[in-house]
Amino acid sequence: MKRSILPLLAVMAAGLAYYGARGSLANFVISWQDAFDVTRGDVSLIVTASFLSMGLAQIVGGKLLERISPWKVLAAGMVLGIAGYGLGAVAPNLGIAVFLVGIVAGFGAGLAANSTLMVIVAQLYTERQGTLFGVVGAATAAGAIVMLPTSRLALEISLEAALVLLAALIAVALVGVLWFLRPNVSAPVTRANPPPIRQVIRVGDFWLLSIPFFVCGVTSTGVTDTHLVAYMEGCHIGGGTASSLAASLALFNLVGTFGSGVITDRVNPRLLLAVIYSTRGLVLLVLPLLQTTELLAVFAVLFGLADFSSVPPTTALARSSFRHGGWALVLGLIGAMHQAGSALGGIGGGELYDLTGGYGAFFVSASAVCFVAAGLSLLVSAGPDVQQRGQTPLLQPT
Question: For residues 99 and 50, what is the distance between their CA atoms, to the nearest angstrom?
């Protein structure tokens, strides 16, 4: 009997809400800078704290996913997001904003991250998992499409109104999680003692997956979620237009992620990852030359296709390399590396901007490490063949 699609829709709504809220923070950089009378580098601390907190939470979440029902991990993360963004609306200074929006909401985002969503999907559906990973990844990308322009409109009212809006969106999605996932997602069926972290990090494939995903963080959310809108506004493009361009990037994120998921079921995901990172590197290399609305629109299309599309093949390779246990923990650790990279991109981009007066050095440096990630991706051990990737259960007891 085929499982209902409603639980999948609940997972997608959760990803859309939380990633939409998280992805819209690029809109807030200049507003926070004005509200707290601080530098661009200082404001970057909010986003940097968020990335680091997300990374820590993904490690914690990876351990929890081996032991308890993943819907509980997801719901706990969403509650923290509601509290962080809601209370962050009344933060009186930068330090409190860093704690609430950065640390509290960021930790919630780590518990509700793609790793948790993918484990839920893998438990719900056993066929065409690469495609379903792409569908959920596309939903997370769609969050930015919805929330970038919506939060921009809310910012026209006030900074407080925009943050309350983010909290409200997550609260609505939480209802769907409690209604549809609680009765359908059970505790994991895996060995009683999942592998310790020290055992996982001895595996070569872990580093061949996590280092490129670290680079992914530097060059995707480290750029788009923190500095892209501000860069566009520095090119004398209005805030509304910049936000719309960022939303169009998110639209092509959706296309690229879904397409990547479908392709992951059909080709070697190592090659797919190498192409994705190489494409991203080329696009970032020319970004400092793109300073008109038309050229930045082209950037939004190309970069969007190569942004979140790294998630399905990375997830599939992690599943293949750790199929006999600890898969959820591995996803959490790899996700933590991604957030560490995002934090470096967030703070590094802000500091380079303050040092050089522009983003050129940051974008060129980000481009260079993309090609390193492409090379490392080709070295990951070959997993099962294409047919097996689409049908084999993710966690097999030993």
Answer: 9
Provide Rg for the chain, Cα atoms: 19
The pTM score is 0.74
- The structure tokens listed for 352 are 């380079």
Domain containing residue 66:
6-382
Specify if 387 maps to a domain. Answer: no
Torsion over CA: 84, 88, 94, 95 (sign): negative
Extract the tokens encoding 277: 């990172």
Count of C-beta atoms within a 10 Å radius of residue 68: 14
Task: Give the pLDDT confidence of 103-118 residue by residue, as tens digits.
Answer: 999 999 999 988 889 8
Contact between residue 169 and residue 77 where contact means Cβ atoms under 8 Å apart: no
Domain count, the chain: 1
Percent of the chain with pLDDT over 70: 91
Q: Given a cut of 50, is residue 388 above it in pLDDT?
A: no
DSSP letter (8 states) at residue 24? G
CATH of the domain at 144: 1.20.1250.20
* Geometric angle at alpha carbon 222, from 201 and 284, rounded to 5°: 110
Structure tokens at 258: 């879904």
Residues 340-363 have pLDDT tens digits of: 888 888 888 888 888 988 899 999
What's the whole-number mean pLDDT along residues 185-192?
A: 58
Instruction: Give the residue among 285, 316, 279, 325 at the shortest CA–CA distance from 132.
Output: 316
Q: Cα(139)–Cα(162) distance, rounded to whole angstroms?
A: 21
Query: Cα–Cα distance between 160 and 185 in angstroms, integer?
Result: 36
